[in-house]
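Late entry, written up from scratch paper. The run itself happened at the end of the previous shift, but nothing got recorded in the book at the time, so transcribing now.
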Amino acid sequence: MQISEYKSGHYVKQYQYLSFLPEPVNHNWTGWDARLEFLLNEANRKLGELNALASMIPDVNFFIKMHIAKEATQSSRIEGTKTTIEEALQPERNVDPEKRNDWQEVRNYIEALDFAIIQLNILPLSNRLLRGTHSVLMQNVRGSLKSPGEFRKSQNWIGGFSLKDATFIPPHNHEIEDLMADLENLLNNDELIIPHLVRIAIAHYQFETIHPFLDGNGRLGRLLITLYLINNNVISRPMLYISDFFERNKDEYYKHLTEVRTKNQMMEWLHFFVTGILETAENSLRTFTALLALKAESEAIIKLRFGRRYQLASDLLNCFFSKPVAEAAELAEKLQVHPSTIYRLLEDFEKYGIVGEKTGYKRNKIFVFEKCLAIFNQEGKLPDSMFKNKKKSDMDISSTQLDFFAEGKTYYINKRALKFCIKKHHAEIFKLHYDLRLQRSDTVLKSFAIKPEISMNPDKIGIADLVEDHQISAFRREGTILTDGGLGGVIHFDEGYYTIPGVRNLQELHKALDDGLAKGQLHLLFDGYKVKGEFMLTRMKGATDKWELRKLPDEFANKTTPENWDKSILTERELSYYMMKFEDQLEDLAQMDSLEMGKLIRQNNGESFKYNSKVLAPRPNKILPYD
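Output as recorded:
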């Protein structure tokens, strides 16, 4: 079936009400648009990176448990629970009695996911497995008396107090068995040629429309996403917390699900869903990277301070990565040592700033690994300090006054322009090149590596490789880089705003950017300190990630190199300054042990980000009047 021809279903007259009967979904789906094709490619690439990174991390399961807790907390929050991730990690006796029902729902989600993943070793992703998972999800919580583990035998509804004033009435209970059989077939039909992310997006919509249980449908429907991705080896472990994206975009989530049913807008739902997978994969990559950095930092302290107790201290650290909130007795039992031994270790952990004690009590102390918790609490969103206006209606990139760096100059993201920057970079692997980075969201920069140069001369062509995305935190990075593939020196060559001619608002700019990347041609208008006017990025014939960058003839085109063209707009330094420094640092690193190396690398990273808050003079000859 062509997606554009999709009809969601029809209403069926029941006694005194109309129920909605969705069309079957177990058939081939075709007709993706260019934007969906692009999003699918990007999402699959990020999922591949995530799987590769996870496979290289020793003891990765210590990190995975926190991903599961994050997903459980956010999925339950969509349904109205208020439990935080920190509360979810504590035993019931430490939870406020008024919050224990919410706490139990989150704990049930964790247990249900663990149960289902184990069951996948012996059962297919089937209705039998879903019913068993539902019974775990609903035990001892609100809805526990509403036939847990069984498809409903009566009519349910969404919104309102009765069938008469309901917002939506799902299919009649007599239709459930056939509809769920069709959904089960979609999930397991190997003859269908449908991308996995499209298949599970359609399956999630259909499950929520059928609403096969009397309660718990939302949580189980979102849990189904994780189970499908694991069952089909799209992800190797439960390390995507897609519910965080749904919770932060809750109104859009429900709007898109509703409009598939009411307006047959399946394509728009697929765009939204795959965007969520892409953003969540990016967030998970950042999470793993931050956790690895924190682990290296903490282990360096342990190696330096704990001597013969190093192995036990390292095991204790792993416990905190798995569960950042813990009591001493719990840790002693887990590590099978005497409580007094654990207390002495915990006192030193607190002394050296690894963990903190939160109660102030002499007994029943609770220790918290705050740095680990902070990584999960801030993932997928920017800190509140970045927002000057806290009204919910203002929390939109098209109207938000946003400070990229939470201090110093405030940038305004206009309704039809986003930021760009250009780096001049000499890397050990990629040699001399220019990095063009286009802001794509409030956290991500789409990146091209360009050789031999970026020029204002229309006669010169740059060859641009589409490379991995970068984070907005690296927007103004300048200095030497002592880790990763970027090893070398970099200057902040230029920055400013960009748009695509003809767009009227940010939504159109995002779509035009995605469509241009998918179709292989991007018409860009830059307003930087050096780079100005219209440029064309065109994908090279037969290539996937290779493009040509050409300056279009306009009033800003110039065949001569302007004065100070090769200098940083932050420091007025040339790249050679940092390359000399880089060579000296390499010689120093060769003489250092691992602890000294780590200290120098962290210090160097801090130095390279110190220009984030620097205020620059106004751009000359503004094309886009946004500051």
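The longest strand covers residues 488-499.
(Scratch paper discarded after transcription.)
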